[in-house]
Design a protein that fits this description.
2 domains; three-stranded antiparallel β-sheet; 5 helices; 5 strands; 46% helix
């Protein structure tokens, strides 16, 4: 480790980081996609796959809030039957599980 008056520098190991901080590993993986020259669709699709891999879940939905902050719009998903997608396309932020997460700006998980 190099130490001087202002900075401390240590060697970086992605493997060790993932072992120490399992819960942050997914954010690290997704952030590498955000800095690449991928389209929004590609970033969202990769993010879904990484969430599924890290959290071991079968269904993932990504919503973006509209400009009026009245509802959430489904922009990417995996693990949902096509006939259920239409009813999930727009969700008012005053309703339901996803609306509550948006209102409270928090992560909410539910084991089914």
């Amino acid at each position: 480790m190099l130490v001087d008056k202002k900075y401390i520098s240590t060697k970086f190991s992605q493997t060790k980081l993932k072992k120490r901080h399992q819960e942050l590993a997914i954010l690290y993986d997704i952030s590498s996609d955000l800095t690449s020259s991928l389209s929004l669709r590609e970033v969202l699709d990769r993010a879904i796959l990484k969430v599924m891999e890290h959290l071991k879940v079968d269904v993932v939905r990504i919503y973006l809030m509209d400009q009026t902050e009245q509802y959430l719009e489904l922009v990417a998903y995996k693990g949902i039957a096509k006939h259920h997608v239409q009813e999930l396309r727009k969700i008012l932020i005053s309703e339901g599980f996803s609306g509550k997460a948006a209102r409270t700006k928090s992560f909410i998980a539910q084991k089914v």
